[in-house]
Amino acid sequence: MAAEVLDVGESRVWIDPDNLEDVEGAITKQDIRNLVEAGTIQKKEKTGVSRGRARKRDIQKKKGRHSGHGSRKGTKGARKPGKEGWKDKIRALRKELKRMRDEEEITRSDYRELYNMASGGFFRNKKHMQIYIQKNIKD
Known about the structure:
Elements: H1 2-6, E1 13-15, H2 20-25, H3 29-38, E2 41-43, H4 52-62, H5 76-79, H6 82-102, H7 108-119, H8 126-137
Antiparallel strand pairs: 1-2
């Protein structure tokens, strides 16, 4: 009857063990309502789903764990589009070229030539560009 009055399931009804005889004497819904007001009968809170494990997993994912083949849904190009890779590469190359020009490791004309080569996709990565500069520019 208490579950009906509180509008919850029977498992969510809490009855004060010290006042069990008062509860046994309650035979009408009004008696139950009075006990609820007095605090002898109470409604338990709903138990939710803990996010503790999810938080722990998120921390691990931030570190790069749990990213193997079995966890992947999209293709390589969907997970990181080719354009993103290109942007990362060209920005690194251009930043390195500017640093070398400012520190006068290369001349302004060499800078422009290398800049255009980078834009044309000649260099695979920064290391490739540095090796090319050592072999062909710095004589």
